[in-house]
Design a protein that fits this description.
Distance between the termini: 42 Å
Order of helices and strands: EHHEEEHEHH
Oligomer: single chain
Helix content: 25-40%
Strand content: 15-25%
Structural class: alpha+beta
Strand order of the largest sheet: 1-2-3-4-5
Low-confidence stretches: none
């Protein structure tokens, strides 16, 4: 199924309302289309999965292009999850990033997916969150 899905690394013609819907349905939370657009425009690498004309997955990363990269917002429509698309997107992103160290944010419960790709939990990561209570309620941080 995922072999027919095209991975694109440019933002030409992206429907940001459609991307925001993917973000919400994945579920990663809610982002306004314009905010989502700006986060992708300010990223070093973007990845969009298209099934025909339909946008079905998105991801982005920041990188110093030498030592460290951070992957954010890998998400896809629920009906495309568990079918290999996330693995394809991650491998394509990692190959293009080319840095020896990559960190990512994982939705609680998705850690086994990333572990299969070689990611390990971090013990010393910290965050300065805009809304700590909301982040704690979602299981992202401990207060």
């Amino acid at each position: 199924m995922t072999r027919d899905i095209l991975l694109r690394f440019d933002m030409d013609g992206v429907d940001w309302a459609e991307a925001a819907e993917i973000f919400e349905r994945a579920p990663l939370g809610t982002r306004e289309p314009d905010t989502l657009r700006r986060t992708f425009e300010n990223s070093d690498l973007t990845c969009f999965a298209q099934d025909g004309e339909r946008l079905v997955g998105i991801a982005r990363a920041l990188s110093d292009h030498t030592v460290h990269s951070v992957i954010y917002d890998l998400c896809m429509l629920p009906e495309y999850q568990g079918k290999g698309l996330g693995t394809r997107m991650m491998k394509a992103m990692l190959e293009r990033l080319g840095t020896p160290n990559v960190v990512l944010w994982a939705v609680p419960g998705k850690e086994p997916f990333y572990a299969r790709l070689g990611f390990k939990p971090m013990r010393t990561a910290m965050t300065l969150a805009e809304n700590p209570e909301r982040s704690a309620a979602r299981g992202y941080i401990t207060l």
